[in-house]
Design a protein that fits this description.
The protein is an alpha+beta fold. It is about 20% helix and about 40% strand. The strands form three sheets. It has a five-stranded antiparallel β-sheet with strand order 3-10-5-7-8, with helices on one face. Strands 4-9-6 form a three-stranded antiparallel β-sheet, sandwiched between helices. A two-stranded antiparallel ribbon has the order 1-2. The mean pLDDT is about 95.
Length: about 160
């Protein structure tokens, strides 16, 4: 089969492992919190070879992203952009948990509650400047749970 100018072989392999863990992240404020190393540790502990890593955040006012991890200014600008898209003073009806709650729900809807990352030779196939982030959309500290699940093959 030829895909995108490259020859590819599609092989049907039954997964040897489904490994699941829950990561708890304590956020301090609104912003991006990198969890790439925690995801890498999970894969190393499971002794994986190849497959797929899925990450799922169990909250409606926080989200996940794969984003640049080289220049921290990118994360500041992204936080500011999300604040402009869903400002606290937007005239929202829902405000029972504070003025940042409804904007947090909107920001989660605009981003992602789950990600999938291919894994090959035990490593996530992220690009050179990519990292995995939990995005906290609320102003005050929270404990956020992220479910990590790997499906694939393992080392003997």
């Amino acid at each position: 089969m030829k895909i995108g100018g490259h020859r590819s072989q599609i092989v049907g392999i039954k997964p040897e492992l489904i490994a699941t863990s829950t990561l708890t992240v304590k956020t301090l404020r609104r912003g991006f919190f990198e969890i790439t190393s925690e995801a890498r540790d999970f894969l190393q502990q499971a002794r994986v070879i190849g497959g797929a890593l899925t990450l799922f955040v169990r909250h409606t006012s926080a989200s996940l992203a794969i984003q640049e991890n080289a220049d921290p200014d990118v994360l500041v600008d992204l936080t500011d952009a999300l604040d402009r898209l869903a400002p606290e003073n937007g005239g929202w009806i829902h405000h029972s948990e504070g003025p940042d709650d409804m904007p947090a729900h909107i920001k989660t809807m605009l981003t992602a509650c789950s990600l999938q990352v291919p894994v090959e030779n035990g490593e996530m196939m992220l690009g050179t400047w990519q990292g995995i982030y939990l995005i906290e959309h609320r102003a005050r500290p929270h404990r956020r749970e992220i479910v990590l699940q790997f499906v694939g093959s393992v080392a003997n």
